[in-house]
Model the fold of this input.
Amino acid sequence: MDAALLNELVRARAEKRAVALATRLTDGIQKLIYLSDKSEENWLIKAIHEVLSSDKGAVVTAPDGAEWFLNPFNPPLRLILVGAVHIAQPLAEIAALTGYDVTVVDPRTSFASPERFPGMTLVTDWPDEAMTALAPDARTAIVTLTHDPKLDDPALQAALRSPAFYVGALGSKKTHAARAARLTEAGFAESDIARIHGPVGLAIGAKSPAEIAISIMAEITETLRT
Amino acid sequence: MTSHDNVLEEAALWLGQGRRVALATVIETWGSAPRPVGSQLAIRDDATFVGSVSGGCIEGDVVTRALETLETGKTELLEYGVSDAMAWQVGLACGGRIRVMVEPVKG
Done:
């Protein structure tokens, strides 16, 4: 690989652009191909789209018989935490360690403070405005943690209107039943509401905020990978 | 908190410091392979490495081969598995088979 190509790849990753590195295995010729590239041959563009959407690299055979290795580099997965509460602190750290871009949303600035979340992206808008701006996609997970319907509900409604791959809401079975009733009232179908993981997290008997964070991160991972 | 997915960033950093660097990438797997296709290892000229291409089973050999590519300047395709002739020394305990591309980064 040329150093210039490596630097361009590192730059694309920093800019969070989806890109794939194509290597012809017969002679080591390499190029970076972006989703917007139109100049490449059709078979290559098609194969690049496949590896980027599946997020899995593959060896493919070109029409001329040469083998190419296509390695996708997607922007990081995202995790949006609504509620800068105690559980959000270890959860933000574990998620960052797992490779997620974490955004913590809470209009209460005493909660969403840089002292409590060093180095994390904090958004202090109301959750509905914040969610509109963040525009969750299919590589985004959303967890509401406030226990306060005023904050959680608008975020959950936005989450259910998005293709987010994981939606979780902290709260007991009783809290979740009340939440489901409110969402039904707001016009959401049963199948929409069923997307919400509530009570949130895998049942591992977690007690402390860090343990609960582990159970949530484990459930997000399970949803992503299985 | 940093993620553990910064192999290329580390490689670029080393290059910027004037070091020579090679990359190893899992390009194909068969059976139960420890790391998926696309997993990478960056190797510095003093044999320091970050990342992984297996659970630690073959990294030693890959690092040696990577240092060789720094001398030859040539990309190499390597295959590892239990059926490999070298399996007594270097192989995958899990029984899978993997193909690894090792390449020098040219400044």
Q: What stands out?
A: The two ends of chain B are 31 Å apart (CA to CA). Helices of chain B lie at 7-16, 59-72.
